Amino acid sequence: MLFELGKIWRLLFYLFIFCSVLILLKLLFSVEEKYIAQNITWIPCQDFTIELGMKQIEEYISTWEFHESWLHCTDFLNEEEVEFSKLYHYRTRWSIPTRRKPIPRATACVYFTIQISKVKPLSLPVEVFFIFESTRLVHRPGQSRFREKWLKDIIESKLIMMENIIF
After folding, report:
1. Where do the TM regions start and end (predicted)?
2. Which among 87, 88, 142, 146 could bridge 39 via Cys, Cβ 3.0 to 4.6 Å?
3. Are strands 71-81 and 85-95 parallel, antiparallel or unpaired?
4. CB 142 within 8 A of CB 37
């Protein structure tokens, strides 16, 4: 009798743990399901200019969620001709200036590429890709959610590196 009561208690314990894990997973994934990666309507290839590309990047960045203390500026870097397309490269530099330190010790960059196809119809929208400095993962608008933590991590790693260098 005691042996069977032990089995029942053990079974109830495992059932409790299993249900707790299911509830936690549901809570975690229900929060993520509610978020939809933001995007904008990108211009057709035929209407593209370097300045308009920069404005569209700024418009896209405005859909990101980040604290108001962050400042950024976007610069056009260069134009690259490849076999089937033209690539336009931009850099958005991020920092958090303060009253005590208006010139930040480190910045974080996001590199955008706007691709204009030479073979697809010009009425199609431009293709846009971006990467964060010191990473290889290529993001596409509307497919990944911006995380402010990525910028903080870049700046933090630069500050740690600078502390270890003796001039």
Report:
1. 12-29
2. 142
3. antiparallel
4. yes
Please say if the pLDDT value at position 55 is more than 80. Answer: yes
CB 126 within 8 A of CB 114: yes
| Residues making up the chain, counted from first to last | 167
128, two tokens = 């846009």
Question: Is the separation of the CB atoms in 45 and 124 below 8 Å?
Answer: yes
Q: Which residues contact 146 (CB under 8 A, 6 or more apart)?
A: 64, 65, 66
pLDDT at residue 14 in the model: 72
Contact 55, 90 (CB under 8 A): no
Asked whether residue 40 carries a pLDDT value surpassing 80, the answer given is: yes
In this structure, which amino acid lies at residue 88?
Y
- With contact defined as beta carbons under 8 Å apart, do 91 and 77 qualify? yes
Q: What pLDDT score does 10 carry?
A: 73
Closest C-alpha to 60, from 148, 140, 125, 116: 140
